């Protein structure tokens, strides 16, 4: 195992060296502009996973940037964005030099006063997110190359020790104003409540660094996986397919029903909107195992949006979509037409809210639906026309194990997926 670890570290070394050089070049150029009394212009490529232009022959599927954003110090908002970017860059540089990892939240709490801007606004963690995205685009790399991981993902293993956390909190208490107490509590709550984001079970075995994930030995047991996807290797599987389920409750139902025993598959849940490691891991599984992959979501706008996130990626991460999307994913259900096909009782069908309708209407405009999955778009139209939605669990109204024993196997055998 030690040998493998060494190999990983020596392989990742050149990438960090390249990045450190790029960071140095970038800051040197900025400094040179400023000392020569020139206002620096920073060009940031723009990426998008879709557009909403009617009947366009767009290039959203090409992974190419769609234009550039020009940051200049003459605009106050740009200047602040640049300050945040440089602060984050400083942290990233330190992480790369010391070969350490950190979460986005750690970064946020390093300079909360800077990242908060002028007003106390918790939503401004998005400034850190934007800075990380900007840096990835400028340095032409993925987020994991910066040694920045998802919040809570393996947090306690690699980023800070508990003592460092305590000191960090103590620093806030000593140095900041009244907000520091709120920060401290938020930090602790967020850290403790979200140590891992996703679950896996089934006929698969893999290693992550020195840790072995041997799901095959008990294929119906959920394994929480705080995984460093870049360190996953030795993936072995005898599964016939991969099933992605939107909800943990459905995942647990399948686990209780011993679903993987009778169906020889791998089941994953990203617990709602999948985070980056979940999507990277799914991409890795599909690349390595070449298995069919199916997705089971609620029949509502959010379920549909989660499905499209797996298949096409999210707008926020559009610059890195090619490493995150899974175009091979098929939609297994629930389709709007399933309510009739499986006689879902009326009381389990819920009316779409005004917000639901707005969300569906906005999603219908996305170019990739028309271009790549018109049959999905048709189903989305049907949701809107009928004005109803239902949860996956509604299908199990007559029999608790309906999903495991009937719905999923019959859909896969009958090829009733899109
Ligand atoms: Zn487009």
TrEMBL record:
GO terms for biological process: DNA topological change; double-strand break repair via homologous recombination; meiotic DNA double-strand break formation; meiotic DNA double-strand break processing; reciprocal meiotic recombination. Its EC number is 5.6.2.2. The keyword Membrane applies. One of its GO terms (cellular component) is nuclear chromosome. One of its GO terms (molecular function) is metal ion binding. Gene3D superfamilies: 3.40.1360.10, Winged helix-like DNA-binding domain superfamily/Winged helix DNA-binding domain. It catalyses: ATP-dependent breakage, passage and rejoining of double-stranded DNA. It is an enzyme of class 5 (isomerase). Residues 241-412 form the Topoisomerase 6 subunit A/Spo11 TOPRIM domain. Keywords: DNA-binding, Isomerase, Magnesium, Membrane, Metal-binding, Nucleus, Topoisomerase, Transmembrane, Transmembrane helix. PROSITE patterns: TOPO_IIB. It is found in: Nucleus. Its cofactor is Mg(2+). Belongs to the TOP6A family. PANTHER family: MEIOTIC RECOMBINATION PROTEIN SPO11 (PTHR10848), MEIOTIC RECOMBINATION PROTEIN SPO11-1 (PTHR10848:SF3). This is DNA topoisomerase (ATP-hydrolyzing).
């Amino acid at each position: 195992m030690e040998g493998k670890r060494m190999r990983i570290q020596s392989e990742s070394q050149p990438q960090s060296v390249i990045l450190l050089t790029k960071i140095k070049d970038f800051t040197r150029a900025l400094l040179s502009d400023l000392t020569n009394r020139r206002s620096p212009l920073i060009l940031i490529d723009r990426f998008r996973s879709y557009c909403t232009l009617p009947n366009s022959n767009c290039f959203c599927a090409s992974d190419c940037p769609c234009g550039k954003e020009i940051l200049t110090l003459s605009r106050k908002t740009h200047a602040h964005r640049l300050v945040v970017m440089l602060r984050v860059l400083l942290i990233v540089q330190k992480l790369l030099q010391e070969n350490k990892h950190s979460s986005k939240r750690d970064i946020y709490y390093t300079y909360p006063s800077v990242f908060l801007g002028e007003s106390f606004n918790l939503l401004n963690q998005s400034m850190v997110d934007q800075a990380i995205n900007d840096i990835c685009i400028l340095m032409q790399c993925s987020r994991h190359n910066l040694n920045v991981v998802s919040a809570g993902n393996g947090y306690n293993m690699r980023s800070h020790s508990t003592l460092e956390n305590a000191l960090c909190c103590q620093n806030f208490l000593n140095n900041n104003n009244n907000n520091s107490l709120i920060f401290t509590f938020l930090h602790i709550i967020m850290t403790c409540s979200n140590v891992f984001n996703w679950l896996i079970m089934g006929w698969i075995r893999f290693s992550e660094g020195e840790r072995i994930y041997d799901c095959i030995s008990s294929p119906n047991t959920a394994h929480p996986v705080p995984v460093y996807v870049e360190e996953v290797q030795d993936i072995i599987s005898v599964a016939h397919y991969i099933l992605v389920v939107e909800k943990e409750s459905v995942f647990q139902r399948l686990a209780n029903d011993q679903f993987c025993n009778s169906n020889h598959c791998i089941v994953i849940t990203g617990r709602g909107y999948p985070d980056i490691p979940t999507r990277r891991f799914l991409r890795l599984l599909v690349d390595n195992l070449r298995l069919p992959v199916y997705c089971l979501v609620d029949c509502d706008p959010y379920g549909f949006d989660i499905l499209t996130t797996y298949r096409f990626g999210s707008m926020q991460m559009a610059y890195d979509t090619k490493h995150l999307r899974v175009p091979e994913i098929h939609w297994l259900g629930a389709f709007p037409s399933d309510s009739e096909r499986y006689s879902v009782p009326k009381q389990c069908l819920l009316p779409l809210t005004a917000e639901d309708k707005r969300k569906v209407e906005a999603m219908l405009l996305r170019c990739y639906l028309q271009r790549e999955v018109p049959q999905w778009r048709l189903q989305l139209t049907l949701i809107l026309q009928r004005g109803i939605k239902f949860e996956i669990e509604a299908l199990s109204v007559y029999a608790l194990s309906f999903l495991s024993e009937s719905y999923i196997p019959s859909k896969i055998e009958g090829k009733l997926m899109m």
